[in-house]
């Protein structure tokens, strides 16, 4: 079997999605889940880009075992130094150096001629190689690079010590047939190509990133760079779950090709990334969308009941979709609760279980049936949270079609309870304005999404927001059986994140 290397860049290119920024704890949580999912390489960040990113890559390198941990660097010594200082704690560190090679980038962005680019590429790879054995090089905008020059650069960086050469379709411009030709061209024209792994990194501007990546795999690419839920710059990167399931489902085409991904972890990973980045997965998203395995038309439902393969090409359980199960209720005890959390994969300390149990009991008073998804939300809310500098104590709203919506909010801040009231365009707006009066930060709501965690009138509602606060776009989320409360919690989560990250940096 030819095992394709799955290089996950959710924490680097994925985090470059507008508004998807993650703090260190969130990056660590995702990295741990990526290791459980079985990715081969985690690109944990771009260490020179900020002190926060440097620390995040370092923490991932220190604590996530199994995958190679990679840091990105421009072809500049200080970038390479920062990348190495962050990844060196991993048992399997990698530095990924990139430099643009297309005429457009060389002329307008770098203002350098081909000779100079070639020299810089070789010098940077040699410099990185002196620090670390595992070096990847990317000729940025490769798909729009003159082919002869591309071959020359690839040959030179391999000779300089790169063991992986990544061919990015940086602007998502290529098409599958053309990209296959580019990969074939490299295989046929670069004399030392057998000494390295060919990787591909496709963006989705024309919606072709997965197709382009798969075309490359069929033509000799040994590594695919991709992200969970297809996150990434602009229209995103190739989606990991789509690539992996295409290779697995169409093994008649991808003969003898496999990946090391534990596909049963795909849905869980997708949910985690969606929650932490605040980027909601569209219901019709292939593989992990909530409708991906739902059959609406009567003819389809009838067909599936008669024989599943009439309308289903994959089994939902193979990607980790499980029947929602009723797990616990009001009378369930602490032991059953702790056992269930263990089964869901949470490894919590006693105090964390106690906190989550109190929250569970409060929820069980409002909601008859508690499902696995509810428990995941509780743990996520109570345990994996950043410190709550501002904590909701109480809220009161009056609203209706003939009254001006008004809200009164009480927040705990430094052991004091502070109160403010405001009117607004709606109850949520009124609450947010009252919160702003207390925090002293005026937030501008950029995005607001609500979804129900499970079904039923008493379901938990989960709100995700993106708020512009003090010049940064911060995501937040909150859950409650009351959607106004969930909205306030999400807004406060964003404010707390900003306070937490500005304190750290
Ligand atoms: O899209 C791109 O070209 C990149 C490189 C840094 C690999 O993200
Ligand atoms: Zn990219």
Keywords:
Double Stranded RNA Binding Domain; TIM Barrel; globular; 3 domains; alpha/beta; binds 3-methyl-2-oxobutanoic acid; 18 strands; 8-stranded parallel beta barrel; 3-stranded antiparallel beta sheet; binds zinc ion; 505 residues
User: Separation of termini?
Assistant: 46 Å
Write down the overall geometry: globular
How would you characterize the largest beta sheet? 8 strands, parallel, barrel
CATH H-level name of the largest domain... which superfamily? Aldolase class I
Structural class: alpha/beta
The CATH topology of the largest domain is TIM Barrel
What proportion of the residues is helical, as a percent range? 40-55%
The beta-strand count equals 18
What CATH architecture label of the largest domain applies?
Alpha-Beta Barrel
Can you list the strand order of the major beta sheet?
Answer: 2-3-4-5-6-7-8-9
Average pLDDT number: 92
CATH class designation of the largest domain? Alpha Beta
Total separate domains: 3
| Low-pLDDT regions | none
Produce the secondary structure layout.
Elements: E1 2-3, E2 5-8, H1 24-37, E3 41-45, H2 51-63, E4 68-74, H3 77-87, E5 93-100, H4 103-110, H5 114-129, E6 135-140, H6 147-160, E7 164-169, H7 176-189, E8 197-202, H8 209-218, E9 223-226, H9 240-249, E10 257-258, H10 266-277, H11 298-306, E11 326-328, H12 334-343, H13 350-366, E12 370-371, H14 372-382, E13 390-400, E14 403-413, E15 416-423, H15 427-439, E16 444-452, E17 461-469, E18 472-480, H16 483-504
Parallel strand pairs: 1-10, 2-3, 2-9, 3-4, 4-5, 5-6, 6-7, 7-8, 8-9
Antiparallel strand pairs: 11-12, 13-14, 14-15, 16-17, 17-18
């Amino acid at each position: 079997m030819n095992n394709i290397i799955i290089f996950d860049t959710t924490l680097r290119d994925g985090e470059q999605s507008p508004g998807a920024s993650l703090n260190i704890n969130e990056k660590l949580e995702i990295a741990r889940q990526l290791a459980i999912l079985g990715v081969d390489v985690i690109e944990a960040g771009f260490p020179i880009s900020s002190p926060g990113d440097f620390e995040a890559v370092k923490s991932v390198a220190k604590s996530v075992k199994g995958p190679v941990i990679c840091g990105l660097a421009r072809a500049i010594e200080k970038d390479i130094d920062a990348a190495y200082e962050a990844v060196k704690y991993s048992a399997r560190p990698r530095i990924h150096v990139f430099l643009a090679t297309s005429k457009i980038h060389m002329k307008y962005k770098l203002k350098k001629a081909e000779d100079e680019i070639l020299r810089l590429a070789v010098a940077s790879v040699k410099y990185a190689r002196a620090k670390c054995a595992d070096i990847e090089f990317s000729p940025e905008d490769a798909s729009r690079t003159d082919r002869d020059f591309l071959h020359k650069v690839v040959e030179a960086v391999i000779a300089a010590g790169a063991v992986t050469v990544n061919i990015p379709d940086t602007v998502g411009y290529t098409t599958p047939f053309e990209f296959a030709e580019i990969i074939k061209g490299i295989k046929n024209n670069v004399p030392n190509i057998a000494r390295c792994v060919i990787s591909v990194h496709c963006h989705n501007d024309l919606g072709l990133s997965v197709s382009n990546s798969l075309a490359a795999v069929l033509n000799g690419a040994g590594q695919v760079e991709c992200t969970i839920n297809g996150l990434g710059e602009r229209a995103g990167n190739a989606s990991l779950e789509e690539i992996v399931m295409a290779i697995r489902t169409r093994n008649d085409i991808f003969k003898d090709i496999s990946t090391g991904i534990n596909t049963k972890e795909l849905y869980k990973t997708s949910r985690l990334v969606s929650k932490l980045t605040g980027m909601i997965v569209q219901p019709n998203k292939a593989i992990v969308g909530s409708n991906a395995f739902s059959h609406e038309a009567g003819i389809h439902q009838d067909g599936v009941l008669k024989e599943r393969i009439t309308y289903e090409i994959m089994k939902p359980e193979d990607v980790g979709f499980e029947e929602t199960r009723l797990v616990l209720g009001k009378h369930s005890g602490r032991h059953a609760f702790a056992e269930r959390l263990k089964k869901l994969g949470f490894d919590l300390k006693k105090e964390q279980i106690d906190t989550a149990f109190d929250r569970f009991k409060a929820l069980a008073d409002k909601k008859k049936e508690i499902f696995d998804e509810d428990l995941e939300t509780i743990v996520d809310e109570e345990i994996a949270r950043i410190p709550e500098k501002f904590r909701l104590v109480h809220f009161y709203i009056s609203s209706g079609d003939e009254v001006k919506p008004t809200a009164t909010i009480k927040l705990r801040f430094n052991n004091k309870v502070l109160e403010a009231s405001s009117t607004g365009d709606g109850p949520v707006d009124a609450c947010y304005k009252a919160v702003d009066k207390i925090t002293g930060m005026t937030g501008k709501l950029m995005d607001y999404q609500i979804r129900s965690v499970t079904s039923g009138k008493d379901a938990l509602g989960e709100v995700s927001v993106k708020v512009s606060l003090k010049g940064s776009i911060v995501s937040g989320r909150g859950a409650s059986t009351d959607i106004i409360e969930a909205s306030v919690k999400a807004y406060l989560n964003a404010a707390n994140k900003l306070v937490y990250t500005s304190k750290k940096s």
